[in-house]
């Protein structure tokens, strides 16, 4: 059984509606969300009902919900996941070579399936954490970004999200904040938690499906079992609303950057800070991140690169 989990509120609504129409014409079971959080429940229900393909029609947040729902049913080993890009940014779809709604359905029918890495953030409740949620672990497909403020979501334009993906929230935050509050971080890598960086950072960027501006390719290696990590130590004075500003901020070889590739990462902040998981904000003082090697079977496009050229040094 093929199920399309459909978010009618994604993007401008037009691509989402078109995706639902095409899916019905092609015999998919279309399940539409009615309110926030439904897409996660619908994905779980699809697995319980026997689906062998679950596709998300929406943006990165919808896709994250669907993958999390399939994962929480312990079904990523037997259920294929796909995406029909109908949101504002569609960052992950772009990184795996899916160029539009019609292209996505062609790929769902006959495209290549690859086993891709999935990022995981463990969110234990630690000293100084003051929050009401009961989260313990969350997946991310694109990235986990530290240092964002909740207010940045309201400041972020659709155009900037289309152009920059999750980094649009970073740009909005820094463009509207004259004195950006630094992140006091202790960053450690690998299972032995070897120290790799300590001090005051402007941003912590951790990518699974994407690299960041300043690197040659946007798409990360999604089959190597490692995360792309960028620590931005300080922020030179740029106009962050200007085109290319983040490329300047994150240019390769800049002295204020530390770039790594690691299988896992432990981050301790001096106080609880916000982290964005594919655009969804959580607040913690302590987070543990890891790559889950080839955790999900995903439908990819012709432009997907199995072995993109590597830039950051590896840390085992």
What does this structure look like?
This protein has helices spanning 14-25, 38-48, 60-72, 91-95, 101-110, 152-155, 158-164, 167-175, 245-249; strands spanning 2-6, 29-32, 53-58, 80-85, 112-122, 137-140, 143-146, 183-189, 194-201, 203-207, 227-232, 257-262, 264-277, 280-300. Strand 8 and strand 9 (194-201) form a beta hairpin. Helix 2 packs across helix 3. The chain has two domains: 2-110, Rossmann fold, CATH 3.40.50; 119-294, Tumour Suppressor Smad4 (Sandwich), CATH 2.60.200. It is α+β, with helices and mostly antiparallel strands. Mean pLDDT is 83; it is low at 237-243. The protein has nine helices and 14 strands. Strands 1, 2, 3, 4, 5, 6, 7, 8, 9, 10, 11, 12, 13 and 14 form a 14-stranded mixed β-sheet that branches. The longest helix has 13 residues, at 60-72. The chain is globular, with a radius of gyration of 19 Å.
For this entry, give a set of tags:
316 residues; alpha+beta; Rossmann fold; 14 strands; globular
Structural class: alpha+beta
Please tell me the overall pLDDT.
Answer: 83
Describe the largest sheet: 14 strands, mixed
Number of strands: 14
Helix-strand pattern: EHEHEHEHHEEEHHHEEEEHEEE
List low-pLDDT spans.
Answer: 237-243
Taking all Cα atoms into account, the compactness measure Rg is 19 Å
Tally of helical runs: 9
Enzyme class: transferase
EC number: 2.7.1.-
Domain DAGKc: 1-125
Protein name: Diacylglycerol/lipid kinase family protein
């Amino acid at each position: 059984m093929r199920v399309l989990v459909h978010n009618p509120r994604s993007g401008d609504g037009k691509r989402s509606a078109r995706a639902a129409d095409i899916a019905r014409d092609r015999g998919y079971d279309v399940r539409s969300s009615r309110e926030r959080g439904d897409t996660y429940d619908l994905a779980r229900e699809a697995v319980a009902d026997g689906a062998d393909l679950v596709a998300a029609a929406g943006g990165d947040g919808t896709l994250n919900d669907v993958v999390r729902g399939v994962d929480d049913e312990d079904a990523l080993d037997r259920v294929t996941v796909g995406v029909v890009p109908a949101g504002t940014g569609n960052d992950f779809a772009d990184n795996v070579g899916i160029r539009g709604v019609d292209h996505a359905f062609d790929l769902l029918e006959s495209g290549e399936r690859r086993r891709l890495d999935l990022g995981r953030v463990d969110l234990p409740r630690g000293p100084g954490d003051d929050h009401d949620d009961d989260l313990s672990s969350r997946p991310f497909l694109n990235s986990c970004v530290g240092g964002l403020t909740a207010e940045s979501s309201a400041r972020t334009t659709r155009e900037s999200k289309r152009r920059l993906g999750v980094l649009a929230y970073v740009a909005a935050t820094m463009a509207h904040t004259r004195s950006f509050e630094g992140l006091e971080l202790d960053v450690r890598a690998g299972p032995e938690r070897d120290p790799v960086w300590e001090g005051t950072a402007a941003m912590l960027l951790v990518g699974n499906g994407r690299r960041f501006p300043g690197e040659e390719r946007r798409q990360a290696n999604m089959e190597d079992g490692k995360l792309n990590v960028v620590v931005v130590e300080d922020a030179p004075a740029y106009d962050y609303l200007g085109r290319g500003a983040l490329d300047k901020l994150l240019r390769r070889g800049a002295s204020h950057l530390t770039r790594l590739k690691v299988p896992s990462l432990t981050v301790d902040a001096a106080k609880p800070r916000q982290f964005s998981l594919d655009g969804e904000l959580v607040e913690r003082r302590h987070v543990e991140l890891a790559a889950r090697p080839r955790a999900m079977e995903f439908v990819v496009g012709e432009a997907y690169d199995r072995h993109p050229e590597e830039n950051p040094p590896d840390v085992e």
